[in-house]
Amino acid sequence: MACVDNILLVTDSYKVTHHMQYPKGTTKIYSYFESRGGKYPETVFFGLQYILKRWLVGSVVTKEMIQEAKEFYNLHFGEDVFNEEGWTYILKKHGGRIPIKIRAVPEGTVVPVKNVLFTVENTDPEVPWITNYFETLLVQVWYPMTVATNSRAQKEVIANNMTETSDTLEKLPFMLHDFGFRGVTSVESAAIGGASHLLNFVGSDTIAGMVMGRKYYGCDMAGFSIPAAEHSTITSWANASFS
Predict the structure, then answer these.
(1) What is the pLDDT of residues 53-76, one digit of tens each?
(2) Which DSSP symbol is given to 52?
(3) CB of 83 within 8 A of CB of 19?
(4) What secondary structure does DSSP assign to 101-163, as a single string?
(5) What pLDDT was estimated at residue 204?
């Protein structure tokens, strides 16, 4: 079980109160996400589909979730600021489906910085606050984008050097093998980062990334590896002359 699996709790604390802060009569909130710039002049857009399928597709709000969130936020804030009425409306009116529309550039697209990558807007005028409630979750697309962008830049460096020193670029997709599973903070991080790297290379030992590709992107097998040895298998054959 995930540490947090209630969608009402997948946000920042301060956003829980924003339904009370918009001007009276507000019916539409329209927001966008962009890469403001950084080390590279362009970015690789990737990872939104995973977030949407993992968290926001289908009926994701239940009566039990609303009750859990109400109890949690009453303890957290020390007062009743949770929008129980709004979430109950979503449950009854929309069957627990989130009334938002998200439009995005195709995943894998290389986009110059300072351009819109995806937009979010509410589709029900009764709940305009829902648009930015999930900003916290949606901006986590920064991680797969960062991995994919860095990986692409590394591929360009390798390709340039291979062009100068090799007769062919045939093996380029295997030139940067991913062994990052053990170096990240969680299995989910390994899956997201591993899948992002596979946009540029096909060599990987990070099984979680390939599983994510199968489960959330319909890719039967995005990465490949070989049977290989490690210290424990080699040293198990040691004889007296090695000691």
Answers:
(1) 999 999 999 999 999 999 999 999
(2) I
(3) yes
(4) EEEEPPTT-EEESSSEEEEEEESSTT-TTHHHHTHHHHGGGHHHHHHHHHHHHHHHHHHHHHH
(5) 97
